[in-house]
């Protein structure tokens, strides 16, 4: 073998060092070639797109760069700009508080809704992220009462009594639950009503940590959108579940009520319901007991959202194989147990994307209240700010700001739901 | 059975509404605040400023009534209303007074069961077009696209005008004045039509107001005034005479500057009666005698309110025109205080 070896002119004894790939096959050039200029048609599209992007930057760039932040009116902005392109962002620096909190929220109290917002993030986190300590859920339970007190003000007693009522209801429910779910529920409701009635009598005399009271009609701006969105979505989830189960029920009356409710609400545009809340309900209450407009709107939006959520959850229920229901039955579980332990956990998991979809849509729909003359973020812009003599004519800056706020919130929600779907995926794809 | 329950509920609702309407003055006094309906925002007429304080020509009427009835021009709860929700808000008792540049028409006064308490601004519907269009008369607008606010009398006037002149148009419906502005500037419509005061205010906010002309035709009468529910004449009288007091104050030269001096007593008995130093006018409408003085002190007389909010010195820049005193050739004419 050594002979053959010696006869060969050249034998490589060690590996060649790796060569750099050709310039056209690596790095930026390859990326550009394969992604931007892979064919004639793609090249043309790339060039056109680049041209558009450059144009956009050339036009919008100076508008942002020349932006003016410190004048007192649009006329002053125009004077400074002298016809040059530039945004008049002064409207944001002068009216930011109205855009966020509405026209009438007392400005010394802005810390209250802000704190409520921060606490909302804390309260929502154990619900959203299952890895956080479960003890935090106690705070989540306390949060609605705390937030009510922070935002509306007044004495803390109202919130405490409401909370005690719920605690009593829960305890009564646990005691009576053995006799059956519905008996437990009844006992809970009775306990809550008793506690509210009894404690309500003493409420006027005690005043704990009173804050300046802010009536509902003084709520506005982005705060109002956040409030409506959060309250209505959290209320509509349990109602939606109940409706979805009701629709599947074998009891004709419950089924009938659920079907009629869902189909009626889904068949009516939200804006119509809002007009009903604003206009028609007013006739049915005597003037002195005029129900809060916000409360009326919350009821209507909640009804609307729960009908949609009910349909999403019904989809989840229908997607479960029949075997799951039968398995629950064969274990000897009664209806409530089967639902609580077997059906709903699975059905709700399937429904998450749909629920988030409804939530994002609903959050954006809260701007519709501007049509019934409530000053939410869009209502503030359409009404008072554009009608002030100083800012009449500022459009891009204001609507851009509103779009930015909504985009941040909705993008956050949608990112979360995508993350959650990845977390819950158990099928090892 | 169900029907009768429903009708019964309606009757109860109607009765309670009626009972409440019969004593608006008592309600307002008990509440300590006047619920006053205003627009969600119209330049010069009503809009909150940076501090959330409502300012404007219509707002001044609310403040004057509050000052007369409750003694405090700040004791007003402003309820913003849109063109569509304003009448139900008043009819349902949510507001005591609607001061929202609302045109006084036959059907609103009778069929909708309201009482207009007077006119605080005489307006008329006009047209604004870009100068580049080269139009000099509204009759040349055949085939034009017209931006028009829905739910207003302007919508109906427009249809009437084009029908009378036998020309056609294409309406572009919009919700508020603020929305019309960019649409018109972008060229989504050739013509913008609304009350002449609104046109002037809108044009004043343009970057180049000189590029747009307001056509000479005024196609309608738009007497804008505050209104109250029909059926409570006592309350209607109070609001009506507060408005008249503001107008009369200008006629007799009572201003916010000299009101203290004049209320010490003058040699003009009419002024003395308005300011309550003579006669018992207050008792006749269920108020004290200084009601007129307080109403005028709240924001000045009619002329001062006009000049401060929409007059020629302001960005809105409206001339007095029809809204001058009758002595100066206008239509403002307050009945005698006697």
From TrEMBL, chain A:
Pfam families on file: BPD_transp_1
InterPro entries from the UniProt entry: AA_ABC_transptr_permease_3TM (IPR010065), ArtM/GltK/GlnP/TcyL/YhdX-like (IPR043429), MetI-like (IPR000515), MetI-like_sf (IPR035906)
SUPFAM superfamilies tied to this protein: MetI-like (SSF161098)
Coiled coil residues, start to end: none
GO biological process entries: amino acid transport
Keywords per UniProt: Cell membrane, Membrane, Transmembrane, Transmembrane helix, Transport
UniProt subcellular location: Cell inner membrane; Cell membrane
Listed transmembrane segments: 40-58, 110-129, 149-173, 180-202, 222-245, 257-281, 293-313, 350-375, 395-414
Keyword Transmembrane: yes
Cellular component terms per the entry's GO annotation: ATP-binding cassette (ABC) transporter complex
Record keyword Iron-sulfur present: no
Top-level taxon of the source organism: Bacteria
UniProt membrane topology term: Multi-pass membrane protein
PROSITE patterns: ABC_TM1
One example GO MF annotation: transmembrane transporter activity
NCBIfam families: HEQRo_perm_3TM (TIGR01726)
Recorded family membership: Belongs to the binding-protein-dependent transport system permease family. HisMQ subfamily.
Protein name: General L-amino acid transport system permease protein
Automatic annotation (TrEMBL), chain B:
Signal peptide bounds: 1-22
Isomerase among keywords: no
GO BP annotations listed: amino acid transport
Positions in coiled-coil regions: none
Domain Solute-binding protein family 3/N-terminal residues, every copy: 33-262
Swiss-Prot/TrEMBL keywords: Signal, Transport
SUPFAM superfamilies: Periplasmic binding protein-like II (SSF53850)
Superkingdom of this protein's organism: Bacteria
Listed InterPro entries: Bact_solute-bind_prot3, Solute-binding_3/MltF_N
PANTHER family: AMINO ACID ABC TRANSPORTER PERMEASE, AMINO-ACID ABC TRANSPORTER-BINDING PROTEIN YHDW-RELATED
Similarity-based family: Belongs to the bacterial solute-binding protein 3 family.
Protein's name in the database: General L-amino acid transport system substrate-binding protein
